[in-house]
Structure formats: C-alpha cells, structure tokens
C-alpha cells in the first residue's frame, strides 16, 4: 500500500480553512446573486432580496452576537482558519457593510426601475406624491394609523424607552416652549400593512408608499405642543442567542419561556439608520444604545427589506412569479392502497418537495385511527403553525394509543411554537419529552408499532427534513419508509435512549450522534482513502447544508491526496478549501441556490464497487456531530440507491443554479461546456415528478453513473 502524503503535511494549517462566518456571508451573497439575475421573473428577484435580509437579521442575532459575547468574555482562541473572535468581527464588519450596500444598490438601481417599468411605483418620499395623493395619505393616517400609534417622549420623568428587537421606529428631536431639545420616538406598528396603496391618476400604474413615510410626514400631530426639528426611521438588532444552565433549571420549559422574553431586551449589536439622519439624532441614538461605529449601518432606502416577501405574495401579479409547482403523488405510493401494506411490500423513498409530503402525514394519521396500532413515537424539531401531524398525534392519544413525542424546545426561534405544541400534546394524553440535557435532538424519526397476524411489526419513517408540512413544499429533502426489522429494532433503541438514557450495545443499521456518527463518517472516508492507496480507486459524493468540522475536512484532504475523487454539494457554509495544489486537487465543491432550499443530506461512498449510500439529518459540523442527537441511515434497496445516485448526478450536472468554490474562497457560476445541454437540477426534478414526464425520468435514469475512481 502506498504511503499517504498527508503524513508529511500539517493539515491543521489555518491556511487550509475558510472561516465559517465569512463562508456563510458568501452563501448569502449567492442568494443576492439570484436577486440580481435578470433572467428571473421580477417578483422572484424581490423574494430572494427579502430572503437575504431575513438571513442577515438572524446571522447578526446569533452568530455576530455570539462573537461579541466571546470578545466581552475575553475569549481569544483562534478558529480553524486562524481568526480570533475580535478578528472575525473586524472582517465581518467590512463584509456586511459591503453586502448591505450591494443589497440596496440592487433594490434602487435594478428592482425599483424595473417595477416602475412594469406599472408598480414604490414611492420613495412623501414629496413625490401629487396633491391628491398627499390628501389621501393624510386621511389614511388620521383614520387608520393615528389611533394605533403610541408616541414616547424622553424627559426627567420618562427615561429612554426600551426598544424591542427588530422593530422599526421613528426617532425625533423636539423643541418645546423652553427651547430645550428633547428626544421622542414612535414605533411603526407591525400590525399594519408596511406597503400602503395610494390612488394614481395613471390607470396603468399601481402606486405604494411605505408606512413609515406616512408616519414621519405626520409626526408633528403626535407631539402637539412641540416643534419637530428632525425625524428619521431607525431599527435595532439585539443579541438573541441565549444559553441555559440546564443543571440549574428545575423546569426546562419554564426556563426557556423566561429566556424568550429576555431575547427582546438583549444587548444592541446593530443600528440601522436611514441615510441622511440628522447628526444630533444619530449621536443621541448611538450613545443611548451603546452602539460602536462598526455596528452602525446607513441605509439608502426603506429599512428592513423583508417587507418584499409580502409584496411577492400580493394577488394579481402572477406574470411576475414562477408558475407554482404542485408536489406530485410519489411514484412508489399507490393512493388506492393502505400505507402500511405499501411499506410491507417494499421500502419507499420520497423526494420532497417534488413528491408530496402527504404520505408522511397520512402515515401518522392512519396510525392514529388504526385499531392495530399500539404505539407511535416521534421526534419533532420544527413543525408548522397549524400542524396536521400534531393533530394526528393528539388524536392517537385520545384513541388510547401509547404516544411518545420528543419536542425539542431548544430549536432556535421556534421555541415559543414548540412550547405551545408540547402543552397541547400533553393535554391530549401524549407522553412529551422536552429534549435532552445538554443536547439538541435534531434527528427526524417516527416509529409506529402495530399488532399484525404474524406478530408485532414496527414501521419506521426517517428523514433529512423536519416534520413540517409547510416547509416540505419549499425545502428539498429525502424521506424513507421501511418495516425492515433491523431498522425497527434500531428505532426502538433510539426512543429508549431518548426517554430512558439506555444506550444499545450495538446498532443494526443506524449511526447516531453524538456518540457514534462522527466516527462512522471518518471510517467511511478513511476506507475510501485505503481503497485509493491500494489501487482500487476511491469516490465520495456528499450533499449537505454545511461543512466546517476540522476532523472531517482533514480526513477529506487526506483522501484527496491519496487519489480519492470527491464531489461536495454544499448549500451554505464550507470551511474546506477546494483545489489547493497537492492538498485538495481532487475535491470540488458546488452550491445550488434555487427556487427550493436545498436541505437533503445524501452521502455516497464507492467502496471498491460495493457502493454504499446514506441519508441523514446531520451536516458535517461540530454541533451536529458532537452536540446533537442525529441519525444517519443507509439506503440498501438497489432501486432506491439508483434513485439517489441519479439525484446526485443531476445536481453535479447542474450548470444553471450551481456555483463552484474556487481555491481563493470565492464562488463562480458553473459554466456549460461546449455542446453541453443546460441543466437546472430543480427543474429536472419537477419534470421527473410529474406523472406525464415519467419517460423523461426514465431517459435520465439510462445515463450511466460512472464513479471517477482514477484520475
């Protein structure tokens, strides 16, 4: 066996890694590229711009906030890319300021003119209104806005108000009879529409003005005995990342409820001020909020672009949106047959959102009403606001089934929703587990136990995505049904571990984090390395959301140096550097950003021709592999393996929505080679799921999937 080159190279060199936060900003930049893409329908571009804004908000509230906490605590240890928290904040300040400038350049220079050209006018200033429109807007203020507003003044008896996280406000400087300058503010009500339609004399034009412009125009009516010197919108972002001392928390649910309330009043970490804000008002805000220069963002346009998602959903503009795709009946599900008989006949693989999520809902709903069902056990991480799965679980308990549900209360920003569902399930008679101490339960697994003629049968559903019927229409995920006894035994062991802390002696099929999964991945990567060194070739294809675990990355570098051909399909963060001479020359990384959020985790290992394919809930990140309960499961049915190989191949062929990571850490759009057809993976999957396009799917299936084992 050849000696590995990795033995003579320091693979821990920071130069071989990309900082995870900076990599995430590259991901958000790829979404912004979709907003800039002139080939997309206008409202689709608005949607992507809105997504960049909501993404950036969460990034600040969690990741930037976490770095600030580290700096405040005096933590100076460098990350795998050699950057301390203070260095990361400095780099991020530059990158995020540039990013915000690019967001608003796209909005002002590209999207606003295009909207106007297509008969939609977003009025930027009250001064642009004609007299009739001004009169209409003033009337609208009097009748629809004024009664909702609560003006807040600051003086000796009224301290500076506590400003809620992410709220849009208008700050003002006032002068009273004593000529003293005072500060006042009013919160822009989130309960009112952000975009207000105003009449337009041009019948071919639909005009809107943002709510804060109307309030700013009429702010003097809120402070009647004062002169308004200046007024301007502003918005703050607070630290929303909280930690819980679970050893000290007597009641986890109650403790999380307390922390959620405190999230509104965390440290201010970002101030957005409209460009042109009066210096006196700005100085007052920065002083009162404790804002440093690097945390101040001047905005050239309306603050908080997430309102564009509401605009995307407005009725009457279908020509500016992609034609909605309706998830199709899964190929392996016969709607005329009972779901349990289908699973008894054969394992089932589902590819959401191209194939409907309804069989998963039907699986739980049928079990709830089925006389033969004895027990239902399920993990829930994020569920929809009006979840049919929750309703089915409650119905099952009411029907006398043994129902055990682990509801992960620590699912960030879904804590409140999950607390509500947990209580509802308890009231229905379900046994509810509120997560595990020190770990998040991120696995997606359901076990249904039935009494059948030949004894007890266990039916298992495993997935890469949440049990959320809403996001299942928007996220690309894999679901898997089986009643194979080894999977059933493992599923039982998982739930026994979650409810009773009993660890199994061995697993039949599953690999579970945090104790076994990382070692399993490292073993699979090293096995390909050994095959390559022995001359039998090696091939890895891995699709996931993020890659930033240093041990996994170093194992991939070692495999690449041994000659293993590695293709990574990574939607978001990637701390691995591709194409480094003599280190990662055999590794390619591509990211696909399209209509649907790429969320599936699929892992392919050539294994000298004895191919193994796995799906799971975990990314290659320390938090997934070391601090969460995650599940990796093999797909062993040859027909289903072929389907997963095809999914991976189509994504590797994508030359429309894919961007390829360069050695310098940048991404460039995948290019079509001469004579190569245009391939948009998500469009291909939509066509393949359509029953009328089955022949096309079969044609794609005929393509030979040849593992590139020798380069």
Residue share in helices?
Answer: 25-40%
CATH architecture of the largest domain: 2-Layer Sandwich
User: What overall geometry do the principal axes of the alpha carbons give?
Assistant: globular
Superfamily (CATH H level) name of the largest domain: Endonuclease Chain A
What is the domain tally?
4
Major sheet details: 10 strands, mixed
CATH topology of the largest domain: Endonuclease, Chain A
Strands, total number: 27
Overall mean pLDDT: 90
By secondary-structure content and strand pairing, the structural class works out as alpha/beta
How would you describe the overall organization of this protein?
This protein has 711 residues and is an alpha/beta fold.
Q: Notable features of this structure?
A:
711 residues; alpha/beta; Methane Monooxygenase Hydroxylase, Chain G, domain 1; polyphosphate kinase like; Endonuclease, Chain A; 4 domains; ten-stranded mixed β-sheet; eight-stranded mixed β-sheet; 27 strands; 21% strand; globular; disordered C terminus
A few lines on this structure:
With 711 residues, the chain is of the alpha/beta class. The protein is 37% helix and 21% strand.
Please specify the SSE layout and strand pairing.
Layout: H1 20-36, H2 42-72, H3 85-117, E1 120-123, H4 131-145, E2 151-153, E3 168-175, E4 181-187, E5 195-198, E6 206-210, H5 211-217, E7 227-238, H6 252-263, E8 268-274, H7 279-289, E9 296-299, H8 307-312, H9 339-345, E10 348-352, H10 358-369, E11 373-380, H11 388-398, E12 402-407, H12 415-428, E13 431-433, E14 440-441, E15 445-452, E16 455-463, E17 475-482, H13 485-500, E18 511-513, H14 517-533, E19 539-544, H15 550-562, E20 565-570, E21 587-592, E22 597-598, E23 602-605, E24 612-616, H16 622-626, E25 628-635, H17 638-653, E26 658-661, E27 667-669, H18 681-689, H19 694-701
Parallel strand pairs: 1-6, 8-9, 11-12, 12-13, 14-25, 17-22, 19-20, 20-21
Antiparallel strand pairs: 2-4, 3-4, 3-7, 5-6, 7-8, 10-17, 11-15, 15-16, 16-17, 18-25, 19-23, 21-26, 23-24, 24-25, 26-27
